[in-house]
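Tokenised fold entry reproduced for everyone:
>
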Amino acid sequence: MPDLEQQLRRLGESVDYPSTPALAPRVGAELRAAATRPADRRRPTRLRLALLIAAAVLLLAAAAAAAVPATRHALLELLSLRGESVERVPALPANARARPGWRLGHPTTLAAASRRLSFTPLMPRSVGDPNGVFLDSQVPGHSLNLTYPPQAGLPRSRLTGVGLLVAELNGDLAPTSFGKLVPRGARVERFTIDGHLALWVDGLHVFFFKAADHVFHVDRSRLAANALLIQRGNVLVRLEGGFDKATAVAIARTLAP
């Protein structure tokens, strides 16, 4: 299996970006116009020139980065989807298993977990109370994992055995602590939910973990079902289960402290 650190540097085709606009002619015209303005406006003109040059650099850098697959992970981080990376691969690793002793952390209560977390947990209010609360101390700032029993709209997942698995972490403290290896046959869609950046992964993929020591724990990798990632402030929330996108979005909209 290729080195995971290298894999995470290639976002590849996982997110579609719009075509790059012609920025250079537009910026050039603005610069020429600014240079010919009257001398009594010299100071404002110089400031405007500086701002235009800075804007041009940022725009051209963003356009170039969007065109290069190797930099698209960095763009996702700029969009604040921090804490989990998505990597497109030709095929899933042959040794990936459904539930290789997958560990969610230490069983606890929500009250006890909240005292140790570096963020305020968000609860999906539309699905009732969790039947399992787990705290994972291997993630910087700790991560919270919640399990919910199968119910209407949330069928039992053959991969996790629960109806809904919720994972939350502080994306500012734990950038790319979690990752996904997504085969080309799966669909990855970027969009927003009520103004919050979200990613939907439709199809079987591999979910893996990187601890605070930056070592990838392949033994904790596992096959995963459909998943929705949503960034709410500094909290990255991951919803996983055998449900469709519409159900996931509806659940995400009920996330509240």
Q: What stands out?
A: The first strand starts at residue 84 and ends at 89. Residues 1-24, 40-44, 47-80 have pLDDT under 50 and may be disordered. DSSP finds six helices and 14 strands in the chain. The CA atoms of residues 66 and 72 lie 6 Å apart.
